[in-house]
Structures are given as C-alpha cells and as structure tokens.
Amino acid sequence: MDNNVLRIIVQDISVGVVVLDQAYTVVVWNKFMEKHSRLSSEEIIGRNIFDAFPYLPKEWLDLKLRSVFLLKNFSFTSWRQRPYLFKFTQTHPITGSAEFMFQDCVFLPVLDASCEKDYATIVIQDMTNVALYEKQLEELKEINSTLEQLSQYDVLTSAFNRRYMEKQLEQEFNKSKRYGNMFTVAMLDIDFFKKVNDNYGHQAGDEVLRQVTKIVTAELRLSDVLARYGGEEFLIVLTETDLQTAGLVCDRIRQKVEASSVVFNENTIKVTISLGLSCYKDSLGDYLQLVNEADIALYRSKKEGRNRLTIFTGE
User: Fold this and answer.
1) How far apart are CA 304 and CA 283, in angstroms?
2) 90 CB contacts (<8 Å, ≥6 apart)?
3) Are 196 and 206 in contact (CB under 8 A)?
4) What is the pLDDT of residue 24?
5) Cα–Cα distance between 206 and 235 in angstroms, integer?
6) Cα 120 to Cα 40, 86, 103, distances in angstroms
7) What CA–CA distance (Å, rounded) separates 277 from 188?
8) For this structure, is 59 an active site residue?
C-alpha cells in the first residue's frame, strides 16, 4: 500500500495515534490527538512527550514504553485499570458526569522502513460511552439491590415482613428435611392490642409495635429471624434450637415485654404478649403445618389467660 494512503488512514482514523522514538520525542500526532489535546502536530512533533504533558504518569509510562522497546511486544491497559492517560475533556453530550475521556491504550513496537530505528506507538480509544454505561449499570444494580432489601422489611417496625419470613421458613424446613437440622417456630401476639389503639390512638399502637420489636430483637441471635406476620402478630424462627432452649428464650422475651413500658404523649402504656411454640418434626409435610402448630399453641396461651407461653404437644 502506498505510504501516503497509510499516512491518511493514520491521520483520519477515529482513535488517537502517537508515535514516539526512544527518547520519547513525538514523531506522529494524528488528528484525533490534535482535536482532543488542542495541540496541532506542528506544535508538538519534535517535543518530548513528558515536557508537553507534565501530568503524564512518568514512572508508569516509562516502564510501559521501555517494555515495548525492549521486548518488541504490544501492551494494553484498560480504562478499568487506569481511567485515562491523557486528560482529554470528554465531549459526549449525555456523559456529563465524566471529567475526562475514559481511554483504552495499546502500546505497539514499530520499526521504520529501514528496520534500523525503533518506535513505540500509543493507540488511544475513547471508551467514555462504554465506561459511563457500565457505571450507570452498576448504579442501577445497587439501586435494585437496595430496593430488594427494603422489600424484605416491614416499614413500621423494621422487622422482616411476612413474604421474607415465608421464604426463610421454606428454606429452613427443606434444610431440616434433608440434613436433620433442628429449628423451632414461635408465634407471638400482643395481648389486647385493640384496646391500646382504642384508648391511646393508632400512633401509640404503632409505637408499641416498634418497642416490642426492639425488645424481641435484642433477645435473638443474628441467625434467628423475626418477622411481623400481620397486625400485632409476629413470627420467630430460632435456628438450630431445640424446644427446651427455645422455650427459655421465648419466656425471657415475654418477661422483658411485661417489665417494659411504652411512654407516648405523656401516657405510660403497659402491654403483655402471648406465645405459641412448635418444633420441626420429620412427620410434618411442610412449613405451614409447623406454623399452624405454633398458632394452635398461641391460641391456647390466649385461652388460658394470656401473658404466657404454650408449647405445642399435639394434644
């Protein structure tokens, strides 16, 4: 191919092309580089690249160029490793958040026509659109992840919600079915909660729900799960816990709630809770049966006077 044709291609190609000799003197500076550096080829050819651009990472670039000259191999650096080499102002209208153009850089060894002189060519590709797209995609993933996490919680109490609890119950149940792990389920209900709303208002009722959640959470381990199951009803999963130990934990929770007070609008509100407890058994067909057993035990606690814990026995 005619050298003049090659020269035109190098000049007009939509990537930056810089050719340096071994003293790092600029030999070629194409139109892409002129446009983004605002330095014409006449202004820069013959100058040392580090004198022309003092901000360049001299130690790093020197190592790259020496490697190209010595090993005669190409080298590459991505915008992910180093966002840019030259501080070119990005000109993309929809990527205003990028201060400088993101760049991929390829370093190539070149010999002159006589094969006597070594040169290093730096090819610079504008990756700003790709970089900004990937960054926006990452931001979107983070937002979606946050929304997913928020969707697991009850807005009022910050306990997990029923949907999340049912997923956890199913996982825990399947794990126990397969590996024989033990776990227990407690259903908790605030006694006479309707009276709290009627006597002190719904905002006071909301505060009671928050305070009970706080007390219960303080008594649980990180591996346990507490969810607001509906209204004033909560469900607790105590992982790797037998019925006896779970009974001690639940009764301690009951005593803590009984001993506490909720102060709201100068009113001191006292509440108690009732609990029903049931433990995983191989004979159960699904987690719903386990929840139903805890519910039956809770019903007995209420029937027998409230403010108590009942363990499901099947009787």
Assistant:
1) 28
2) 98, 99, 100, 101, 102, 126, 128
3) no
4) 96
5) 18
6) 20, 16, 18
7) 9
8) no
Alpha-carbon gap, residue 174 to 203, rounded angstroms: 39
* pLDDT at 115 (0 to 100): 65
**Residue 277: closest CA among 232, 303, 241:** 241
Average model confidence (pLDDT) for the chain? 92
Q: Give the C-alpha distances (Å, rounded to integers) separating 218 from 49, 226, 256.
A: 64, 11, 10
The rounded distance, in Å, linking the Cα atoms of 105 and 291 is 61
Using DSSP, how many helices (H) and how many strands (E) does the chain show? 11, 12
Q: 73 burial class (0-12, 13-18, 19+ CB within 10 angstroms)?
A: exposed
Quick check: 94 pLDDT over 70?
Answer: no
- Measured distance CA(33)–CA(62) in Å, rounded: 20
How do residues 280-312 score in pLDDT, each as one tens digit?
A: 999 999 999 999 999 999 999 999 999 999 999
CA distance 290 to 293: 5
User: Where do we find the tokens 């997913």?
Assistant: 148
**Exposed, middle or buried: residue 202 (CB in 10 Å: 0-12, 13-18, 19+)?**
exposed
Q: Which of 128, 118, 142 shows the shortest CA–CA distance to 97?
A: 128
Non-local CB neighbours of 73 within 8 Å, separated by 6+ positions? 67, 109
CA atoms of 86 and 64, how far apart (whole Å): 15
Q: Give the model's pLDDT for residue 240.
A: 95
Strand, helix or coil for residue 310: strand
* Active-site position among 219, 232, 258, 315: 232
Mean pLDDT of 196-201: 95
Cβ atoms of 123 and 106 closer than 8 Å: yes
pLDDT of residue 93: 61
Whole-number CA gyration radius for the chain: 35
pTM of the model: 0.65
